[in-house]
Specification:
It comes from Pseudoalteromonas spongiae. With about 400 residues, the protein is mainly α. It folds into 3 domains: about 60 residues, no CATH class; about 150 residues, no CATH class; about 160 residues, no CATH class. About 55% of the residues lie in helices and about 10% in strands. β8 and β9 form a beta hairpin. It starts with a strand and ends in a 6-residue tail after the last helix. The relative contact order is 0.14.
């Protein structure tokens, strides 16, 4: 069965034929992956989702990491990270940890299983729409894999001062991250939306061009249905040929992110208390400390994730907003590549916040040594969240609406 889609990156209308196992369909204009066929996709998603849920529950039941220094020890489980932050009145960061690494994956996995077992054929359509739209909006905010990398980095930072032991939950959580990543690889939202309602057959007027905008078509941003209507008939989302007001929202969130980035670097991201003496640490001072003790790879990773990526992302967002609002020719391919890059790496800046969270959870040895979270970490987390929202609100199709110069 041939399917008509408008590429969500460049708005090119593409007719995709029935694909064989292992075949991929790419947009002929911007080379974005549009569809791929995998044998027994639904069965693989169900099996991996069940395995992921079992591993996630296992990761909550046993010790995660143990920290020992001068005869004093501290053992935490996965839930203790947020619990200790709650005790320290850091409710925002505590809620962020539990939601992004435990809550959201649990919700998504519990939806994946019935939806891939045929539930869409029997559920009421409003409930089916709600489930699929929930997956669409929540999926980008899962940060379990970033948390795992943050754990490994934090362990390298404190191995020189203490003995570290990884518990059973750590290995269960690592396996969970692997299974969850494979689940997302096999997951295909478009095939699920097709179970709810087939794609409309649209007659394309070749004389008007091959983009949906030229045909006055609206490509639903949620389910990719092509329609002439203001409301998508399949998912009930509002549709528009282009919503230029989104640029104002992108700029608003980008400016908010920039404002938060200044105190995030100025204020300490954590406080180390040794015999009740406070040793505050900012992001840059933490990078310098890692470099001085010889942890060059970790220092470089933190510097890239916490300094280079946020600055680069904000610069690219401002640059893209400028390009699509000014009447000038642009290099569309370069602008499109820049957008794909910031969309891909945006949430990885959260590594530094997760590193601090693990250190705060582990290093609680009374007056001998303890670590508390600093206000800089809160500003940094808000900066990452607002920059992610700005990137999601930006419509990359606006790039391809512009006239280009020779590339």
């Amino acid at each position: 069965m041939e399917i008509q889609l408008a590429c969500h990156h460049c708005d090119q209308i593409v007719s995709i034929p029935t694909l064989s196992h292992g075949e991929h369909a790419y947009c002929p204009n911007c080379h974005t992956l549009l569809s791929r066929t995998i044998n027994a996709r639904a069965q693989k998603v169900v099996a991996l989702s069940i395995a992921s849920l079992i591993l996630l529950f296992s990761a909550l039941l046993y010790p995660f990491i143990s920290f020992s220094n001068q005869g004093l020890s501290q053992t935490i489980n996965l839930l203790d990270a947020a619990k200790i932050l709650f005790y320290q009145d850091n409710f925002f960061v505590a809620a962020l940890i539990d939601i992004t690494i435990i809550g959201l994956p649990f919700v998504l996995l519990t939806l994946f299983i019935p939806l891939h077992m045929g539930a869409l054929y029997v559920l009421p359509k409003p409930l089916s729409r709600f489930c699929l739209k929930t997956i669409y909006y929540l999926k980008p905010w899962v940060m379990s894999e970033i948390f795992l990398i943050g754990v490994l980095i934090s362990m390298i930072k404190i191995m020189a001062m203490a003995e570290i032991t990884f518990g059973l939950s750590f290995w269960a959580f690592s396996a969970f991250v692997l299974c969850y990543s494979l689940t997302l690889y096999y997951y295909d939202s478009h095939s699920l939306w097709l179970q709810l309602a087939d794609q409309n057959k649209i007659a394309i007027d070749e004389s008007l061009g091959s983009r949906a905008k030229n045909q006055n078509l609206r490509a639903c941003h949620v389910c990719q249905l092509l329609t002439y209507d203001d409301t998508c008939s399949r998912c009930n989302s509002k549709t528009s040929v282009r919503n230029t007001q989104h640029i104002q929202w992108v700029l608003a969130f980008t400016i908010t992110s920039l404002i938060c980035y200044i105190p995030a670097n100025f204020f300490p991201i954590m406080h180390t208390w040794i015999f009740s003496i406070d040793e505050p640490s900012t992001i840059l001072s933490g990078v310098f400390t890692l470099w001085q003790i010889g942890s060059y790879p970790i220092a470089i990773i933190i510097f890239i994730a916490s300094i280079c990526i946020p600055i680069g992302k904000l610069f690219v967002l401002f640059w893209l907003c400028y390009l699509v609002t000014k009447k000038q020719h642009i290099s569309r391919k370069q602008a499109a590549r820049a957008y794909v890059l910031i969309e891909l790496v945006g949430k990885w800046s959260m590594i530094d916040v997760f590193v601090v969270v693990i250190l705060v959870s582990l290093v609680q040895l009374g007056v001998l040594m303890s670590i508390t979270i600093g206000v800089g970490a809160i500003f940094f987390a808000i900066m990452v969240i607002t920059s992610m929202i700005a990137a999601q609100l930006f419509d990359p199709r606006l790039i391809w609406d512009k006239k280009r110069f020779s590339e």
